[in-house]
Amino acid sequence: MTRKLIECVPNFSEGRDMQIIKQITDVVEGVEGVRLLDVDPGAATNRTVVTFVGEPDKVMEAAFRAVKKASEVIDMRHHHGEHPRMGATDVCPLVPISGVTMEECVEYARTLARRIGEELGIPVFCYESAAYSEERRNLAVCRAGEYEGLAKRFADGVKPDFGPAVIDDYTARTGATAVGARDFLIAINYNLNTTSTRRANSVAFDVREKGRKKREGDPITGKVVKDENGEPVWIPGTLKGCKAIGWYIEEYGIAQVSMNVTDINATPVHVAFDEVCEKAHARGLRVTGSEIVGLIPKKVLIDAGKYYLAKQNRSCGIPEEDIVKIAVKSMGLDDLRPFNPREKVIEYILEDSDKSPKLVDLTVRGFAEETSRESPAPGGGSISAYMGSLGAALGAMVANLSSHKRGWDDQCPKFSKWAEAGQDLMYELLHLVDEDTAAFNRIMAAMSLPKKTDAEKEARAAAMQEATLYATEVPLRTMKASLKVFGLVEAMASEGNPNSVSDAGVGALAARSAVLGAFLNVRINAAGLKDREKADALVSEAAEIAKEAEAQERKVLEIVNAKIG
């Protein structure tokens, strides 16, 4: 199950007074579920870039509080710095990380912008993908004239998207803010087997979207070609949404192509890597590896790993850790120094910061021992989800074995898709292992609520019903996910490597046990619901799934037994 995550990268007009900066970052860290990733102050620019991440609603709340605090502790009337700016919070972009589309991120940004304008009374311009007009996609247009030019712009009729179009005593302190939605920017450097900055620049100009100036005759020393307006004519590079230059890194003793990928949808990082390799090779150079600067979304490495696996005609339906390893090795991310995904990938950093123990992190032996103890959880619901995950894992295993079977190379893409489907189901069901125990713990927490007064009794009863409903819905989700396993194992029993047909059969047995085990949990938890209409509907839906699972199991076992003979 993909967690919804967005990143927020507000820039505040204070880079020298760490006490002021800390007041702002403290309110960010005060929002539960938000992780502060980086605070980067600059004295010369008098500006601090703050990076935090979390689920959308929590990030929006943290961003609003940060903007509010900045408006209280920063006075733009006294601000000076080298970087362009127009407000205490100069820009506040939202970036989709996982489980969130750009369209959704735009709506989040506009909602945040409206709240800042209406509740804080700060003029707000929406920019990048959140812009309401094409010209305001460009931040420079929104920030024209900077802070000092705001009063004249408003007097000339320019209106922000939200908030007042006036500079008074309050807005003179706060200035204006730009709120936007944009793609994640990836900073990546490509290592070359040369010390020549000029040659590195040549490769950079080959690939960057802007390209290079067109010249007459010699492409380096020739006269620059100009258009009818006297402006230089440019030859575009091959990569959309990419900026690049060449430089020499004394620390490593090599030249690099330093690139910012500003649109990872138009140009994924692995595509950029291959293109730089090709252009370098054409100039007699070789890319020896690359280094990623800063943090990245997991998608960057997963997409890269799957891309290189597909080029090798290998299955992409393997564990996530293995896919990431392929990406790291394929792009030489560990060329200059060790590359640890747990320290570079945003989702992994968030996972590691969650210190709550998880059942799925236990060893097989530890999981069995924990189940055997006198505590009621983990119980049948978690065990059912785990059996379902094993069924999906067996289906993925048969698909992977089939994709690598000698003489079946032409069928690799088909089996790879089945293996990927199996991996997705496996991870979904592994998530439900802990979710089922968490649902039980909700009931226990509700039971421990006070019940002395009528109000407390009413609140406790409502909490009990809410927790019981959730504890009924979670095993129903396990049933639905486990039922999908049958499509996988049936295909593998029919079309997969015949030497592994018994494994497909065991997968069907595991999936059927998962469905029926979770069905028992649906029934026992639904019995505690006062809303009998809802309870009966949930049990009825679950009964149909159980019936279908038993039929599907028989169908798969018939295929398996026929092949075994």
UniProtKB/TrEMBL annotation:
Pfam family, one: FTCD_N
Location of the Formiminotransferase C-terminal subdomain domain: 184-349
Pathway: Amino-acid degradation; L-histidine degradation into L-glutamate; L-glutamate from N-formimidoyl-L-glutamate (transferase route): step 1/1
SMART domains assigned: FTCD (SM01221), FTCD_N (SM01222)
Keyword Chloroplast among record annotations: no
Keyword Transferase listed: yes
InterPro entries: Cyclodeamin/CycHdrlase (IPR007044), Formiminotransferase_C (IPR013802), Formiminotransferase_C_sf (IPR037070), Formiminotransferase_cat (IPR004227), Formiminotransferase_N (IPR012886), Formiminotransferase_N_sf (IPR037064), FormiminoTrfase_cat_dom_sf (IPR022384), Formintransfe-cycloase-like_sf (IPR036178)
Keywords: Cytoplasm, Cytoskeleton, Folate-binding, Golgi apparatus, Histidine metabolism, Lyase, Multifunctional enzyme, Transferase
NCBIfam families registered for this protein in UniProt: FtcD (TIGR02024)
Gene transcribed to yield this protein: ftcD
Superkingdom field: Bacteria
Family, similarity comment: In the C-terminal section; belongs to the cyclodeaminase/cyclohydrolase family.
Entry protein name: Formimidoyltransferase-cyclodeaminase
GO biological process, one term: L-histidine metabolic process
Function, in words: Folate-dependent enzyme, that displays both transferase and deaminase activity. Serves to channel one-carbon units from formiminoglutamate to the folate pool.
Localization, UniProt: Cytoplasm, Cytoskeleton, Microtubule organizing center, Centrosome, Centriole; Golgi apparatus
EC numbers, comma separated: 2.1.2.5, 4.3.1.4
